[in-house]
């Protein structure tokens, strides 16, 4: 059996409820699972849309990281109106861990001290790169290698950093409206400031990566820009997208203007924060573009109209998701055989400095889109959408368990956490006719729970027994409307990712980005309405 690959889940069916999981959305077959983290000494809620088992290129997962106000009970990407389920084929398992507000999704040197006097362990890198992949492999059959990771705002840089540091786990990275240069005086000041006033963390300046003035600090190794060359060295690819700060569609303007319940002062402030944050991300992205050109890192850059808000991100999600899936599909496969001779899974391998593995087939790249100089930028376009959409008409069923929590149906599962007999998350299935979820609104700019504005309030939840069968009708997710402004896409590096062909409405143009200063860190996070996610989330 290949090292790092555990026992594969026998029947990777979307409709099977896994151990320690409850249905959180029966329409889109999304489970809320309690995954124990030994490193953080707690259970972490992870929203998971299992694959339908149709992939011929290995069982792969796409990990989604939340912004700075990440709620502990549900990942924002998991809300149906975001469009995640329509953008990603059902052949991929979508993995959406909740929590990590203000943590930068990294391993902290010491416990975080909160403003309320409590402390908490922040070991998100260990959880995401080791503990969670093992859980997914055991219970969902997802490979522990050859996956993709997606992050936005606070976690945009984290997604790239995690991929750079763990190339075996993630072969493809996607950063949206992120902040990538952290190891500089601006980052040393802004990140702890933001952590304190948005997440209530008092000691981020020294507890996270150590005193930046100490020779033993780890700020440098967690700077996505400084380590961008690792992507080329590891045979990985990445896409980085950002708005220019100005809303680019009527839908985005409308959502921003109505997001604060008609309060004109709050609306003006909200728009100002969204524009300011995206301008900061734009500067950071341009600097990253230059760093990619210098190092030859295979990164695709996409510039669009849009501010730092969910309507902007929803509109760009389909094209970003298409690129990520094309990169995953281009990865080579390896058959993994268990010790008893059975086939565990097929998965991809990534070239690293310590292992001899395969990289993307050069034949899969378009010579016309490759920059012969290795330092410039070339415009690329998007491919036709891959086949496969979220399954419709599938009735979710729960797997029967024994007192020890082991499935007795066609699945085989183990759980190494100390509370293996637990029933997992208690989040009930709760859907309305339009597929929206009844939940508490995510935390606001001060880190306190805020009520959802009246004009964006969700229908009241209908609580059901998570072990019962879900309705047979499961409409597929509607893909968000594309942005009215054509994105500008550039690819840096001498190793061009698998090329795409553009949708008819897109008209990408060549561009060469320049900048002289780096922007870092995200700022305030304001309430994310449940049905009209237009407000700022960083």
UniProtKB/TrEMBL annotation:
Pfam family, one: Esterase
Compositional bias ranges of the Low complexity kind: 345-373, 400-432, 463-487, 501-538
Region: Disordered, residue numbers: 345-538
Compositionally biased residues, Polar residues: 433-455, 488-499
InterPro entries: AB_hydrolase_fold, Esterase-like
Name of this protein: Esterase
Organism in which the protein naturally occurs: Gordonia jinhuaensis
């Amino acid at each position: 059996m290949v090292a790092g690959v555990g026992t594969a889940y026998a029947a990777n069916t979307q409709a099977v409820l896994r151990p320690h999981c409850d249905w959180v959305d029966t329409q889109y077959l999304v489970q809320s699972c309690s995954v124990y983290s030994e490193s953080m000494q707690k259970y972490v809620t992870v929203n998971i849309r299992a694959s339908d088992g149709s992939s011929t290129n290995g069982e792969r997962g796409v990990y989604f990281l939340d912004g700075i106000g990440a709620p502990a009970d549900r990942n924002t990407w998991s809300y149906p109106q975001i469009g995640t389920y329509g953008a990603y084929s059902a052949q991929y398992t979508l993995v959406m861990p909740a929590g990590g507000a203000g943590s930068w999704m990294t391993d902290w040197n010491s416990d975080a001290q909160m403003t309320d006097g409590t402390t908490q362990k922040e070991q998100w890198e260990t959880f995401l790169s080791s503990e969670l992949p093992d859980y997914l492999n055991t219970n969902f059959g997802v490979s522990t290698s050859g996956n993709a990771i997606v992050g936005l705002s606070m976690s945009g840089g984290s997604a790239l950093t995690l991929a750079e540091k763990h190339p075996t786990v993630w072969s493809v990275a996607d950063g949206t409206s992120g902040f990538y240069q952290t190891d500089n005086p601006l980052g040393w000041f802004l990140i702890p400031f933001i952590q304190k006033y948005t997440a209530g963390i008092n000691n981020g300046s020294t507890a996270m990566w150590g005193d930046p003035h100490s020779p033993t600090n780890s700020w440098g190794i967690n700077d996505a820009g400084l380590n961008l060359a690792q992507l080329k060295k590891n045979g990985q690819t990445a896409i980085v997208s950002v708005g220019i700060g100005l809303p680019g569609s009527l839908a985005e303007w409308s959502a921003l203007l109505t997001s604060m319940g008609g309060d004109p002062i709050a609306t003006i402030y909200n728009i100002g924060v969204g524009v300011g944050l995206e301008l900061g991300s734009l500067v950071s992205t341009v600097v990253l573009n230059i760093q990619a050109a210098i190092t030859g890192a295979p990164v695709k850059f996409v510039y669009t109209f849009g501010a730092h808000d969910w309507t902007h991100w929803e509109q760009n999600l389909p094209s970003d998701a298409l690129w990520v899936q094309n990169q995953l599909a281009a990865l080579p496969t390896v058959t993994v055989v268990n010790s008893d001779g059975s086939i565990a899974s097929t998965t991809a391998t990534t070239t690293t400095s310590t292992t001899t593995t395969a990289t993307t087939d050069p034949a899969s790249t378009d010579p016309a889109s490759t920059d012969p100089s290795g330092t410039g930028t070339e415009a690329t376009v998007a491919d036709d959408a891959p086949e496969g959409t979220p399954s419709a008409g599938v009735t979710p069923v729960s797997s029967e368990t024994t007192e020890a929590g082991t499935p007795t149906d066609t699945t085989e599962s183990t759980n190494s956490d100390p509370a293996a007999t637990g029933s997992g998350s208690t989040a009930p299935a709760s859907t309305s006719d339009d597929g929206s979820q009844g939940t508490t609104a995510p935390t606001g700019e001060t880190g306190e729970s805020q009520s959802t504005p009246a004009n964006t309030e969700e229908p009241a939840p209908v609580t059901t027994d998570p072990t019962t069968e879900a309705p047979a009708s499961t409409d597929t997710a509607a893909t968000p409307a594309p942005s009215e402004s054509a994105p500008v896409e550039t690819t840096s590096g001498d190793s061009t990712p698998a090329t795409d062909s553009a949708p008819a409405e897109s008209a990408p143009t060549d561009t060469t980005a320049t900048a002289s200063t780096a922007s870092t860190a995200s700022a305030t996070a304001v309430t994310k309405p449940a049905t009209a996610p237009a407000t700022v989330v960083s």
